[in-house]
Amino acid sequence: MVNEGGEVWGIITYRELLFHYGEDLGNKKAQDIMRPYRIEVDPQWPVEKAIELMNRSKYYHLISWTRMWETKWPVGMLTSFDIVQYMAGLEAGHFEQLLKLGGEAL
Questions:
Q1: Can you tell me the distance from the alpha carbon of 22 to that of 29, in angstroms, rounded to the nearest whole number?
Q2: 48-71, pLDDT tens digit by residue?
Q3: Containing H/E element for 80?
Q4: d(C-alpha 72, C-alpha 7), whole Å
Q5: pLDDT (0 to 100) of residue 106
Q6: Quick one: 24 exposed, middle or buried, by C-beta within 10 A (0-12, 13-18, 19+)?
Q7: How many alpha carbons fall within 13 Å on the CB side of residue 15?
Q8: CA dist 17 → 46, 62, 89 (Å)
């Protein structure tokens, strides 16, 4: 979730949604279920540094920033799934194809 100036206020992941499992989310606003987000991640960081931050902070989605004028703007997101895909040497979309085929390689 970003404010009018483009700065990130919070993040909603599957984890936050699981905490509200069974609730009627129709009347909730994003800010009601979001997790505050105040982590700064440089898109040029090595993957190992991102993994270390994920483990330490218990955030498994990292938003990378760039500074534009006097505001930080989100430019991308790195997830734990992205890292596992990278470590396994899978191309983007390959994992989803394996799931559809029941684990058989193409």
A1: 16
A2: 998 999 899 888 888 887 777 776
A3: helix 80-88
A4: 6
A5: 47
A6: exposed
A7: 9
A8: 29, 17, 29
